[in-house]
Every structure is written in structure tokens, then in C-alpha cells.
């Protein structure tokens, strides 16, 4: 991490060992399997709640119904690839409005930056799908194979019936969850009840089975087998999130000024850390938080719970490992330098801390960016038209000279209607005196004005010819405006274009 | 390059033994599965080479060829369009124009067929080209702008030798064959200009009128209104195929240029000719 000075004392204090022989230095290493231990506490409870909420959202949302009228999908959230529509409750997005999705992604990115600069890796530790599903898979594993020690014993023990039963059952449940995950993914793209029946009865399309298997397979692979390696080796976020963290961000930290030197609980002259390794054993990525800030730490805070429960049993104040800013850590260290372990050192260190500075240029800029993007998106959404007219002027021929000497231009007019209403509209041309408009294939209203159709949730196209009689003075380019009028006379949509004549 | 492996005092990790200008690289072993994934991609590539036509002269065991796949897709598209094409083949252009479904198909298909077969001379969108390629988007027709007339012209063409029913007519070479003197041709050209109100020499136009009445009215009409039966252009309007200056008109009277268009019957599917008819009719000049 570039912006944060990591306390590497623990490792640096160890005496350097003799260099190993070249032969013992392979460039490739097997994964050290991590056996996270069960833990109880505040952070764990919050993590369970976030997990339940995220999974409930993911699995339940496709099943929410939303009545849009006949002939339309009644699924609240649906990406309808076939008909090129995105349904989100009352909102219906057309492909040309995909910028709403871009805006939502930009908003998500800035929110991620802001949260990271304030509270560290909350995303990684609590809400990232990799974390959520890994946590769920670990829960299953613990439920069937037992806690850390039981699992280690099982892996080292004989490959007997007990081993295969427990392992087989674990993988079976994992695959069930993975199948539900892949199935739920597909449901965001096709009607949920229909596709569920199709998948179960074997009548779904090849695409549906492909994506079902793809997402089920990767859920099983990433949450069951790869786990922390996804964060350590595959994910780019841990590598550049250091740019969002600074000394004022709350990160999971070991208060080394209070814990060092480590020693037995009853020993004299030692710090609060009893070197019980509870923090290491609960870590889902298998690291030692006491080594300081490191890329592998996903900031889940389970070590906080583990350490707090040990401190509670020993009757010592909690918070030896805590969500703390590196600025406070440095302040505590400075205040306690040279002090012997004991209550005085603890009090001096804790007294040196200040409330984290949440309002600072970096967070203000992130908040500003979020506000600007939100306002732009809200404005774009509120001003979004549901009826558009687009005008494409013929490029070939640019204009046509008629036999009487008049000039004519051709236009293709498209009427884009995003609503269900399909009553006809009047097409009206705003142009200088003498311009005449003929709309091919259009009816006329009682006043003789051309009536164009609008298709419910669709596009209608017309060819329009505009001509100017001979003798009319005509610049090379004349601005004209096409308008769609409601029967009441209200302007429903307008689009400007030009009328081109010969060079003067 | 020294290969001394050392223990880094800060991180406790070993170095790889490589050193560049004093910079030493820590040995952080890559996970083995990563290496195996790399090997798997190599195996995948080998399988790909065997299954697909990946090297010259090797068709692959799957037999899949991009060109053949395209041919198959085109055939499938043609099969999908076949019922509509059959309807277009049987219908008259007037029936097609009256049926919204057939008309929409014909306009889309006609646009493509026009770009492939007609735009070379008549230009994109029927804008025409200088030197005798008529504009099809205006309201002036030499041989007629009704659906039937357009269909007839496309089917049989104009003044070609390959189709017995081709539209045909000949304008005499008044100057080149010595039928009129140069002065007389100038007078006739002046009279022709007067038909659209552009004569500058009224005396010459008057002399030309007599010659015009004698030589030209049979085809071009008393007042130059033209005759579509023989493809004689209207001379009293603002649309000129070979130019509207006196010199250009005199050149045509002296040695006429009579445009030729090939017959498309036999080259194009009758359904395509019908689509082209409806498309050309829709460009703006249809009668």
C-alpha cells in the first residue's frame, strides 16, 4: 500500500534466518488451505445480517411481479434481451437509453470510492458477492464437517466412509446453492416462473442452460474452491483501492502499541496480546492482522470479534484489534513510546486518539461527484421523452429539381413511441411561406393535415417530401422544424432539420 | 547476474536471486493452479487447432468453415423470405403498392436491389448522373412514371439489342447527316430555349420555329411537350438530360445521344423486378 505506512514491526523483529538453498525455492506453490474458525460478536452479527439481505435481494427480486398491462412482462426487474427492453418496476429503458445504466455504474463506482476512503474495505469484507457466497459456503462446510479443528482432523485423517460422506454431502449442498445462484441469474433475463419450470422439466433453451451452468459452475468453483485466492490473485480492486485509503480511513488494525510485547496472560511485563492466534484462526484469508496492513486483508473484521471475546474472558478492555484510523494508531504510538505495559500505557494511548476526520477534501470530492452524477441522472430521467420524432434528411439526392423548376427534398421520419398509447398524431411542418409537405402513405384529418400513426411501444417510419415552388428565393440551406401535434393541438414532439437548395 | 538467494529483513521473504542495479526481486511463488491454468490454455489451443480450420490446407475435424456457415445463413434467410417472394412474384406492382405488408417488404428489398443493380448509372437514391442518366427521384419521365411503365422499362430496357420488346426510338442526326445546316440548328436550338422561356434572340427563335414545326413536332409535340410513347423528352420544362445551354442543345440536334438501358428480365427474379418497380415509384416521382 502506497499511501499508508504499514507497521511491519512484528515481522521485522524476527531474526533473519539463513538463506535457503536455491533448490528449496520453487517459483510455484500449492495453496495453503485456510480453515476459518467459527466466531461470535458484533461484527459477525452485522456480517450475517448483510449476507442475509444480499442473498434475499438476489434470489427474491426476480419473483416480484409488476402489472404493466396486457402483452407485457409482469416481472418487476427484467432485462428483456429479445425485445431490447430493460424493465425496472415502473421504468422501461430502451437500448438508446443505456446511459442510465452507465450512470448507475458511475454512481456505484464513486459510492465505492467514498465508502472506501471513509470506512476502508467495507465492500470487500461485507457485500462483495465473492465474500457473501464464500461465507455461505463456509457456513455449510462448518455445519457438515464441524469447526476448524474437526475439519483439519478430517482432512488429515483416513479416507474412510465418514470422510467421503461428509465431503460428498458438503459438495452436494454447495452444488445445490450454486444451481440456485445460476438459476436466479437466468431469471433476471427471462420470466422467472416460466424459466424455472422449463429448467426443471428440461424444456429451456440452450442459451438458458448455458448461462445457468456457467453461473452455477463459477459459483461452485469460486466460493467452494478458489475463495480467498480470488481476492488475492484475481481481483484488481485490492491492488488499486490503496489510492482511496489514507491515514483517516477506518481500517481493521491491530493496536500494537498496546499489545506488544506479546506474552502469556500471566507473564510479567508483557502487553495485552496473549499470542493466542484467535485472530489468525478466524481469518477467512488466513493472514495475521498483527503483521499490519496488507493486500490480503479484506477488512471483514472477524478478527475484531475473535480478539474481543478473548480480551473479555481475560477481563481486559476490548478493542486490541479494532476499526481504527492509521492516524490514531500513530498518535497512540507516539503517546505511549517508552512506556511499560500496563493500564497507564493503555489510558495514555487511548487518550491520544481523536474522532476520525470524515469531512476532508477527498471525501468531499467523492460526495460532490456522487451528487453531480445523481442530479444529472435524475434530470435526464425526469426530462426523458416518451415520444420522439427523428428526421433523417436524404443525402442522395441532396435535392431534386422538379420539371416546373421547383426544388424538392426527401426526408425519412421516425416516430418513436415508448408508451402504450397508439392514437394517430398530426405531422406539421414549420417552414417559410410556400413550403409544401407530402407524407407518403399517410391519412389526412378533416382539415387536410397529414395524420401519422404511432405504434404502441414501437417505431413507425414515414417518407416525407417537402417542395418549394419555382421562383421562390431560397438560400442554400433553410431551417425547418417537424412537429407532432396531439389532436388537441399540443406539441407532443419536435425535431429540426434543414431544407437544401442549389448553391446560389 | 548474481544468483545469491537472500532473506529480506523487512518482509522475511526470500529473494529470487535476481538483481538489477541493486534492485532485488522477492520470491512470491505463484499458485500452482495458476500454472496449470496456463497449461490448460495451451491444451485448449491445440484442441482448437485440430478441431477448426486453423492453418492453411487444414479443414479441421469439425468441418466448420466460416464461408459455408455464411452460405447456410443466407439460405436460411432466403427460405424465410420465400413465401413473401412468391407473393411478390405473383402480384402486380399495383397490388403490391396497395398491400402494406408487401409494400414494406418491397421497399426494403427494392432499396437493396437498386443499390446492387441500378445505382451504378442512376445514382444512390435515384439521383441520376450527368451525361444522360435520368434522375428517378424527380417528377419528369421520358418513358412514363406509372407503376406499369416503370415495370415495363425495367423488364425490357431501352434501345438494347438483347430484348425484342425493349423500348426503342431513333432521333435523326440532323447535323451529322446534313439534314440541317449549322445556322438552322442554331435557330432550332434558340426556339427550343424559347419553349421554357429562355430565348435571347427572338428573330432566330422565330426562324427556328418553322424548322421545328417541320422536323421535330412529330415526336416532341407542337409546344415541346414531348411524347412518352417514343421516349421523346419534354422540352418545355426545367429538367434537361444532356444540359440546358444552347451549345449543349445544338450538340444533341447535330448528333443525338440516345441512352441505352439493359433488359433486366431474365437477369433478376420477377419478384425483384416488382420490388424495384415499387421502390423507384416511391422515390418521389411516381405517377
From TrEMBL, chain A:
Give the Gene Ontology MF terms in alphabetical order.
Answer: 4 iron, 4 sulfur cluster binding; metal ion binding
* Annotated transmembrane regions: 39-61, 98-119, 169-188, 208-226, 363-383
| Domain of life per record | Bacteria
Its keywords, alphabetically, are: 4Fe-4S, Electron transport, Iron, Iron-sulfur, Membrane, Metal-binding, Transmembrane, Transmembrane helix, Transport
UniProt GO cellular component terms: plasma membrane
Q: Which residues form the 4Fe-4S ferredoxin-type domain?
A: 263-292
UniProt key word Iron-sulfur:
yes
Name listed for the protein in its UniProt record:
Cytochrome c oxidase accessory protein CcoG
Which source organism? Neoroseomonas oryzicola
Question: What does the record give as the organism's lineage?
Answer: Bacteria, Pseudomonadati, Pseudomonadota, Alphaproteobacteria, Acetobacterales
- Tell me the gene name: ccoG
Automatic annotation (TrEMBL), chain B:
Positions binding heme c 1 in this chain are 118, 121-122, 261
Question: Which positions, given as ranges, span the membrane?
Answer: 33-52
Sorted keywords for this record are: Cell inner membrane, Cell membrane, Electron transport, Heme, Hydrogen ion transport, Ion transport, Iron, Membrane, Metal-binding, Oxidoreductase, Repeat, Respiratory chain, Transmembrane, Transmembrane helix, Transport
Instruction: Report the subcellular localization.
Output: Cell inner membrane
GO biological process: what's one of them?
proton transmembrane transport
Q: Which residues bind heme c 2?
A: 171, 216, 219-220
Q: Which SUPFAM superfamilies match?
A: Cytochrome c
Question: What are the residue boundaries of the Cytochrome c domain, all occurrences included?
Answer: 105-196, 203-284
Q: Which Gene3D superfamilies match?
A: 6.10.280.130, Cytochrome c-like domain (1.10.760.10)
GO terms for cellular component: plasma membrane
Protein origin, superkingdom: Bacteria
- Note on how the cofactor is bound: Binds 2 heme C groups per subunit.
Q: In which pathway does it act?
A: Energy metabolism; oxidative phosphorylation
Q: What one GO molecular function would you report for this record? A: electron transfer activity
Q: Which coenzymes or cofactors are required?
A: heme c
UniProt similarity note: Belongs to the CcoP / FixP family.
**Protein's job:** C-type cytochrome. Part of the cbb3-type cytochrome c oxidase complex.
| Subunit structure as annotated in this protein's UniProt entry | Component of the cbb3-type cytochrome c oxidase.
Tell me the protein's name. Answer: Cbb3-type cytochrome c oxidase subunit
- The record lists the organism as Neoroseomonas oryzicola
Amino acid at each position: 500500500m502506497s499511501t499508508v505506512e504499514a507497521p511491519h514491526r512484528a515481522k521485522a523483529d524476527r531474526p533473519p534466518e539463513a538463506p535457503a538453498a536455491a533448490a528449496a525455492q520453487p517459483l510455484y506453490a500449492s495453496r495453503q488451505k485456510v480453515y476459518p474458525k467459527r466466531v461470535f460478536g458484533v461484527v459477525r452479527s452485522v456480517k450475517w445480517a448483510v449476507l442475509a439481505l444480499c442473498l434475499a435481494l438476489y434470489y427474491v427480486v426476480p419473483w416480484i411481479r409488476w402489472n404493466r398491462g396486457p402483452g407485457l412482462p409482469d416481472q418487476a426487474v427484467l432485462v428483456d434481451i429479445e425485445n431490447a427492453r430493460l424493465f425496472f418496476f415502473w421504468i422501461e429503458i430502451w437500448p438508446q437509453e443505456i446511459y442510465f445504466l452507465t450512470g448507475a455504474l458511475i454512481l456505484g463506482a464513486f459510492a465505492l470510492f467514498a465508502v472506501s476512503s471513509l470506512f476502508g474495505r467495507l465492500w470487500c469484507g461485507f457485500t462483495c458477492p465473492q465474500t457473501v457466497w464464500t461465507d455461505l459456503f463456509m457456513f455449510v462446510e462448518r455445519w457438515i464437517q464441524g469447526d476448524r479443528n474437526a475439519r483439519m482432523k478430517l482432512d488429515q485423517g483416513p479416507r474412510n466412509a465418514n470422510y467421503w460422506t461428509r465431503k460428498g454431502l458438503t459438495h452436494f449442498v454447495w452444488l445445490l446453492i450454486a444451481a440456485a445462484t445460476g438459476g436466479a441469474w437466468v431469471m433476471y433475463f427471462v420470466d422467472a416462473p416460466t424459466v424455472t419450470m422449463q429448467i426443471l422439466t428440461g424444456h429451456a433453451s440452450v442459451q438458458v442452460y448455458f448461462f445457468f451452468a456457467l453461473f452455477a459452475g463459477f459459483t461452485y468453483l469460486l466460493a467452494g474452491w478458489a475463495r480467498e485466492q480470488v481476492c488475492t490473485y484475481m481481483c484488481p480492486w485490492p491492488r488499486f483501492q490503496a489510492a482511496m485509503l489514507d491515514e483517516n480511513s477506518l481500517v481493521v488494525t491491530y493496536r500494537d502499541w498496546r499489545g506488544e510485547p506479546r506474552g502469556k496472560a500471566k507473564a510479567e511485563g508483557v502487553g495485552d496480546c496473549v499470542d493466542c492466534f484467535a485472530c489468525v484462526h478466524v481469518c477467512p484469508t488466513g493472514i495475521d492482522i498483527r503483521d499490519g496492513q496488507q493486500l490480503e486483508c479484506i477488512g471483514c473484521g472477524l478478527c475484531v470479534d475473535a480478539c474481543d471475546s478473548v480480551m473479555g474472558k481475560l477481563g481486559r478492555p476490548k478493542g486490541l484489534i479494532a476499526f481504527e484510523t492509521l492516524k490514531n494508531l500513530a498518535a497512540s504510538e507516539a503517546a505511549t513510546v517508552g512506556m511499560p505495559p500496563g493500564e497507564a500505557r493503555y489510558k495514555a494511548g487511548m487518550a491520544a486518539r481523536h474522532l476520525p476526520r470524515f469531512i476532508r477534501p477527498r471525501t468531499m470530492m467523492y460526495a460532490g461527484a456522487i451528487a453531480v452524477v445523481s442530479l444529472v441522472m435524475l434530470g435526464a430521467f425526469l426530462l426523458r421523452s416518451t415520444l420522439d420524432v427523428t428526421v433523417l434528411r436524404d443525402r442522395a439526392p441532396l435535392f431534386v429539381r422538379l420539371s416546373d423548376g421547383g426544388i424538392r427534398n426527401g426526408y425519412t421520419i421516425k416516430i418513436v413511441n415508448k408508451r402504450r398509447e397508439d392514437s394517430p398524431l398530426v405531422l406539421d411542418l414549420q417552414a417559410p411561406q410556400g413550403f409544401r409537405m407530402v407524407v407518403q402513405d399517410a391519412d389526412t384529418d378533416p382539415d387536410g393535415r397529414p395524420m401519422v400513426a404511432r405504434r404502441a411501444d414501437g417505431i413507425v417510419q414515414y417518407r416525407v417530401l417537402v417542395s418549394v415552388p419555382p421562383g421562390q428565393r431560397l438560400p442554400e440551406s433553410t431551417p425547418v422544424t417537424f412537429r407532432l401535434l396531439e389532436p388537441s393541438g399540443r406539441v407532443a414532439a419536435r425535431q429540426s432539420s434543414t431544407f437544401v437548395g442549389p448553391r446560389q | 547476474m548474481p544468483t545469491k538467494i537472500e532473506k529480506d529483513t523487512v518482509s522475511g521473504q526470500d529473494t529470487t536471486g535476481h538483481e538489477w542495479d541493486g534492485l532485488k526481486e522477492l520470491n512470491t511463488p505463484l499458485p500452482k493452479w495458476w500454472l496449470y491454468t496456463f497449461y490448460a490454455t495451451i491444451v485448449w489451443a491445440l484442441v482448437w487447432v485440430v478441431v477448426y480450420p486453423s492453418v492453411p490446407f487444414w479443414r479441421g475435424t469439425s468441418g466448420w468453415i466460416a464461408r459455408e456457415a455464411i452460405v447456410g445463413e443466407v439460405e436460411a434467410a432466403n427460405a424465410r423470405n420465400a413465401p413473401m417472394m412468391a407473393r411478390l412474384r405473383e402480384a402486380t406492382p399495383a397490388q403490391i403498392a396497395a398491400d402494406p405488408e408487401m409494400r414494406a417488404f418491397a421497399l426494403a428489398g427494392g432499396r437493396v436491389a437498386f443499390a446492387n443493380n441500378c445505382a451504378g448509372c442512376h445514382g444512390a437514391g435515384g439521383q441520376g448522373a450527368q451525361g444522360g442518366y435520368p434522375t428517378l427521384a424527380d417528377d419528369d419521365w421520358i418513358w412514363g412514371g406509372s407503376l406499369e411503365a416503370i415495370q415495363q422499362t425495367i423488364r425490357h430496357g431501352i434501345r438494347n439489342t438483347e430484348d425484342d420488346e425493349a423500348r426503342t426510338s431513333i432521333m435523326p442526326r440532323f447535323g451529322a447527316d446534313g439534314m440541317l445546316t449549322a445556322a438552322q440548328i442554331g435557330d432550332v436550338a434558340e426556339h427550343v430555349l424559347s419553349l421554357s422561356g429562355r430565348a435571347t434572340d427572338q428573330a432566330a427563335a422565330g426562324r427556328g420555329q418553322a424548322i421545328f414545326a417541320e422536323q421535330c413536332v412529330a415526336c416532341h409535340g407542337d409546344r415541346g411537350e414531348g411524347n412518352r410513347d417514343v421516349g421523346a423528352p419534354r422540352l418545355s420544362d426545367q429538367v434537361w438530360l444532356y444540359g440546358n445551354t444552347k451549345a449543349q442543345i445544338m450538340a444533341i440536334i447535330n448528333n443525338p445521344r440516345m441512352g441505352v438501358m439493359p433488359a433486366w428480365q431474365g437477369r433478376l427474379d420477377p419478384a425483384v423486378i416488382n420490388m424495384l418497380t415499387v421502390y423507384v415509384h416511391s422515390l418521389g416521382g411516381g405517377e
